[in-house]
């Protein structure tokens, strides 16, 4: 297993590769250093320069990056406009994904939200791995969003119901629902034409018309 210092260097170099532009004239050492700093990775100009030379060398993987030495300061960019697809998440991506997780889960179709689950788990792993060495990694633990009005307790909605509503919206299908009124002893069965979802704080509202009262919107 690589030593801690080796893992830190690999993480830094991975972030550095993601900062190198594919278009334009390229970025200078100082500009790349500032971009790393914006991600909470504090390094010296000399370290960035040494990393770039190492990454361009076959010993460091021979990444297709080049430096323009025709004018000073020297600028670095990818050899072609497509660059190289680099998997993984940056710190900023991981923080944003963690903060947006709860809201996204409520607003996205259930099937689509399920496909994002590995991304959210990956974001959590990235933040946990950088807790001790990156000042932004703990940001999601330091902030909370509170609605401006009194909070409402969201009703318990089964996953099957949520998926059914989302499918109705996606495919333009009617929904057969059973309404439980507090002042009645019997259920009221209705057919709804779903139009959209509104997320108000923690509570989701379905906008729809009914077969009996169409086109009035509920």
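^ Assign residues to that structure.
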């Amino acid at each position: 297993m690589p030593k801690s210092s080796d893992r830190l260097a690999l993480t830094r170099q991975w972030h550095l590769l993601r900062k190198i532009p594919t278009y334009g004239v390229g970025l200078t050492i100082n500009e790349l250093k500032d971009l790393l700093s914006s991600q909470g990775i504090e390094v010296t100009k000399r370290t960035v320069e040494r990393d770039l030379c190492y990454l361009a060398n076959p010993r460091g993987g021979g990444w297709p990056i080049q430096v323009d030495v025709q004018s000073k300061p020297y600028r670095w960019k990818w050899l072609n406009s497509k660059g190289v697809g680099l998997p993984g998440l940056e710190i900023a991506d991981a923080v944003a994904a963690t903060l947006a997780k709860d809201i996204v889960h409520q607003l996205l179709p259930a099937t689509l939200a399920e496909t994002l689950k590995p991304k959210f788990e990956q974001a959590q792993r990235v933040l946990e791995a950088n807790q001790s060495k990156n000042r932004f990694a703990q940001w999601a633990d330091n902030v909370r969003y509170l609605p401006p009005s009194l909070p409402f307790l969201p009703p318990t909605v089964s996953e099957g119901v949520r998926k059914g509503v989302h499918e109705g919206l996606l495919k333009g299908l009617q929904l057969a629902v059973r309404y439980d009124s507090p002042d009645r002893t019997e259920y009221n069965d209705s057919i709804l034409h779903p139009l959209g979802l509104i997320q108000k704080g923690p509570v989701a509202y379905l906008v729809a018309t009914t077969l009996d009262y169409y086109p009035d919107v509920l």
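The longest strand covers residues 188-200.
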